[in-house]
Specification:
Elements: H1 11-17, H2 19-22, H3 31-42, E1 50-55, E2 58-63, H4 93-99, E3 100-107, E4 110-115, H5 122-129, E5 136-142
Antiparallel strand pairs: 1-2, 2-5, 3-4, 3-5
Helix pairs in contact: 1-4
């Protein structure tokens, strides 16, 4: 193989085209399957509190531990290795960017829209305010789940 035989691949496009490589049931991507994948990432941390909630059409996960570490929002835009979870593991947030309609990440008292939603309902904002111990919280909605 020569140098010209290699091709640079956009990670988001590759995930979209080959979900079976990145998710256990890649043919059937659901909010539940993405939530399970995120939960697995969070639970790599010992001694952490985890909150999972469905509000309206939103899936929400939060923890008192910021499981993204120093990668922060980079985990939404590319495949970021997550060696604490095992060999060849990566942070699951990138899957949300590819498959979810809306993605919002909350850190401290602020939030950042990653995909879609330009506004977040007052119910979601109140939910976050009522759980001040959370260091990181992610909310997402699926394209096909209302």
């Amino acid at each position: 193989m020569g140098r010209d035989d290699f091709q640079i691949v956009n990670p988001l496009e590759h995930i979209r085209e080959h979900p079976e490589i990145y998710l256990e049931d890649g043919a059937n991507v659901t909010g539940s399957s993405l939530m399970c994948r995120l939960l697995a990432d969070v639970l790599v941390n010992n001694n952490c509190q985890v909150v999972i909630q469905r509000l309206e059409s939103w899936w929400i996960i939060g923890s008192d531990v910021d499981w993204a570490g120093t990668a922060q929002n980079q985990v939404f835009y590319t495949i970021v290795p997550f060696p604490q979870a095992g060999q060849n593991c990566f942070h699951a947030e990138v899957l949300l960017t590819v498959f979810a309609r809306d993605v919002v990440v909350f850190s401290g008292n602020s939030h950042t829209v990653i995909v879609g939603a330009t506004s977040v309902s007052e119910e979601i904002l109140n939910f976050r305010r009522n759980l001040p111990f959370l260091n990181r919280m992610i909310g997402f909605r699926m394209k096909n789940e209302e």
